[in-house]
Design brief:
By secondary structure, this protein is mostly beta strands. Helix content is about 0%, strand content about 55%. Strands 2, 4, 5, 6, 9, 10 and 11 form a 7-stranded mixed beta sheet that branches.
Length: about 120
């Protein structure tokens, strides 16, 4: 069974940093031709924050460009989201997502990120 498990969320002050991890199990991360981080803030729709392909091509929502970096470590079967210069508006539940040709879409359970003083 394919699973994605997020970790690394928490409470941080504005201007601080966090690194989220998304560990894949049941399948080699290279099987995911596209992986992404989404977030859902209270009262808002889910939005795509950042995505990465197997060739390490990346894309970001405008609001996080220059502050967030998505990456994947194939040897550790893990994807990351480095978040710097965090703002209160980054507060949300962050979800990991992966797409494979065989299993379709797989979601993680989510990890809470709260940016507050």
């Amino acid at each position: 069974q394919v699973q994605l498990v997020e970790s690394g969320g928490g409470l941080v002050q504005p201007g601080g940093s966090l690194r989220l991890s998304c560990a894949a199990s049941g399948k080699n991360i290279l099987s995911f031709y596209f992986m992404a981080w989404y977030r859902r803030a209270p009262g808002k729709q889910r939005e795509l924050v950042a995505g990465i392909t197997t060739r390490a091509m990346t894309n970001y929502v405008d609001s996080v460009k220059g502050r967030f970096t998505i990456s994947r470590d194939n040897a550790k079967n893990t994807m990351y989201l480095q978040m710097n210069s965090l703002k209160p508006e980054d507060t949300a539940v962050y979800y990991c997502n992966g797409l494979t040709a065989v299993d379709g879409t797989t979601w993680g359970q989510g990890t809470q990120v709260t940016v507050s003083s």
